[in-house]
Structure formats: C-alpha cells, structure tokens
Design a protein that fits this description.
Layout (H helix, E strand, L loop, with lengths): L13 E7 L3 H17 L3 E8 L10 H11 L5 E4 L9 H13 L3 E4 L3 E5 L5 E5 L1
C-alpha cells in the first residue's frame, strides 16, 4: 500500500507517475518508464504512486485517490502512465482516468516512445525509441 507522499518539489511541470498491476515487477517497470518519459520532457516527478489491484474501481484505489488529491491541491499538474494498460482495466476505466484528470484541470500522458535499454554493465538506462 502506498504511503501518503510529499508532493513538494521544484521544476517546470510537476507530475505524478501512476501504475496499477498485481505483479510488482510490472509495477516497477511501469514506474520507471513513466519517470523516464517525464524526465525526457524536463517534468518534475513529484510523486510515483501505484495500486496492486486493477480490478478495483478507481474510487477504491489508494494510490489513485492520492493522485486526485494532489491534482485538486495543484501539487501536480499531470499524470504520467507507462501505458494505459498499466493504469486501467478496460476502455471504461481509461475514459474515467482521463475525465478525472481533466476535471481537475490536469493532463494525462501515456509514456510512448520510451523503453528501457540495458547498458554493457547490465544497468537499465532510459532511451527514446
């Protein structure tokens, strides 16, 4: 379960990275892709939140609720997801994600064009496809 994060930071556009998957490896990878996407655009990642049960309604997800609170208070101005499949469980939920974010005057960005590359040392490094 995510803890209540601190959303204070400096940068051009503060965003939250969000993912929802039952597999911790998938969640971690989705977060990393979201971070790389934001960093490539010089956005400040003010928070990275996730939920573990994509079958739960959005209103019952602790991480998603924290993101809505951050949007409401203007601590973040946008939400980055690695892919809509990492945040939602179907077209209806994708529509709800976008509507909720826009309802607070924010934006929803899908991290397309970013992939993790392996360096010679085996360390992941972000890249733009």
């Amino acid at each position: 379960m995510p803890t209540k994060p601190s959303f204070h930071g400096r940068g051009h556009v503060p965003v939250a990275v969000y993912s929802c998957a039952s597999d911790p490896v998938v969640r971690s990878g989705a977060e990393e892709l979201g971070r790389r996407y934001a960093e490539a655009r010089y956005w400040l990642v003010a928070a990275a939140l996730s939920d573990v049960d994509p079958s739960r309604p959005l209103a019952e997800r602790v991480g998603w609720t924290a993101i809505l609170e951050a949007l409401s208070s203007k601590d973040v101005h946008g939400v980055v997801v690695a892919g809509l499949r990492h945040a939602a469980g179907g077209h209806r939920v994708v529509h709800q994600l976008g509507s909720a974010v826009r309802g607070y005057g924010g934006f929803l960005a899908e991290a397309v064009g970013i992939r993790l590359l392996e360096t010679d040392a085996g360390q992941p490094q972000g890249g733009i496809q």
